[in-house]
Amino acid sequence: MRLLERMRKDWFMIGIVLAIAGAKLEPSIGVNGGPLKPEITVSYIAVATIFFNSGLSLKTERLT
Q: What percentage of the chain's residues is helix, strand, coil (to nearest 5)?
């Protein structure tokens, strides 16, 4: 049960490691013009997602 608790706590770091491993195994997915369209994804969607995620972590008291 301790492993599951640890995974819940460090889910973001586990996700980053899995993303890096996936990129190492199949780098052709992320090339320009590839299926992920990084020229669009990184420029717009990733930046918006980062700001949205940061906003979700704000406490309600700080927003008011």
A: 80, 0, 20
